[in-house]
Specification:
With about 240 residues, the chain is an alpha/beta fold. The chain has one domain: Metallo-dependent phosphatases (Purple Acid Phosphatase, chain A, domain 2), CATH 3.60.21.10. About 30% of the residues lie in helices and about 20% in strands. The chain has a six-stranded mixed sheet with strand order 3-2-1-11-12-9. A six-stranded mixed sheet has the order 4-5-6-10-7-8. α2 links the parallel β2 and β3. The longest helix has 13 residues. The chain is globular. The structure holds zinc ion (ZN). The site of zinc ion has 7 residues, from loops.
């Protein structure tokens, strides 16, 4: 079976559509595993929820999803993010709110634990350091864990008494092997690793391989929509820079 690993779509419908099209081009997948933050920052939150609902998926909640339905205080967010969330709240229908409200913080699929932040702090913790990774391995029972939130493609491997980074670059398959791993497929809608192209991964369970993909999409179109809706300029500038 093949599964698509998507994180941090962030109301970027253009990027989300480009990724789904790329998945189809590669023969499709059994299911999309979505790692939270469907909304926030971007200009089309409702359309992204609608498209996800039409796609066979498993999804967990991100911090922006929870803030958009009033379950997290906006004081936890930086001013631009909070402005975008306030705007997002006005766009969501009752059905959108019900969908977001039903998302769990943690779930398990086929030997993977799915969380947004980290297994230790499923909603908030950024998993970007070896020290955080080392501690996090104690907080999930499956062999593998999928995370989002940092918007950076990253892989951590559990070592005896510690953890290490494993390179995770486009098109070089990550062989799962025997150890325990935590994998971040990067962000669909707002990458922050210096590469503005949408980021996602495909997991092939028979081959035991996860492959990272980067997809170009029309960033200008998204920036225009953000401008028309008076979303913070800095949020649209960063899309073009991948930061
Ligand atoms: Zn995010």
């Amino acid at each position: 079976m093949r599964y698509a690993l998507l994180a941090d779509i962030h109301a970027n419908l253009t990027a989300f559509k480009a990724v789904l099209k790329d998945i189809e081009r590669q023969g499709g997948v059994e299911e999309v595993w979505c790692l939270g933050d469907i909304v926030g920052y971007g200009p089309q939150p409702g359309r992204c929820i609608e498209l996800l609902r039409r796609t066979k998926h498993t999804c967990i909640a991100g911090n922006h999803d929870l803030a958009a339905i009033g379950r997290l205080e906006l004081s936890n967010f930086n001013p631009d993010a909070a402005t975008a969330i306030r705007w997002t709240v006005e766009q969501l229908t009752d059905a959108d709110v019900d969908f977001l409200a039903a998302l769990p913080a943690v779930t398990e699929r086929e030997g993977f634990t799915l969380v947004h932040g980290s297994p230790r702090e499923p909603v908030w913790e950024y998993l970007v350091s070896i020290s955080a990774a080392r501690e996090s391995f104690a907080y999930f029972k499956t062999r593998f864990c999928l995370v989002g939130h940092s918007h950076m493609p990253l892989v951590f491997k559990q070592e005896e008494g510690g953890a290490s980074f494993i390179p995770f670059v486009e098109s070089i398959g990550l062989v799962l092997g025997r150890g325990r791993l935590m994998v971040n497929p990067g962000s669909v809608g707002q990458p922050r690793d210096g590469d503005p192209r949408a980021s996602y991964a495909i997991y092939d369970s028979e081959a035991g391989v996860v492959r990272l993909h980067r997809i170009s999409y029309d960033i200008g179109e998204v920036q225009l929509k953000m401008m028309k809706n008076n979303l913070p300029v800095r949020l649209s500038v960063r899309l073009g820079q991948g930061i």
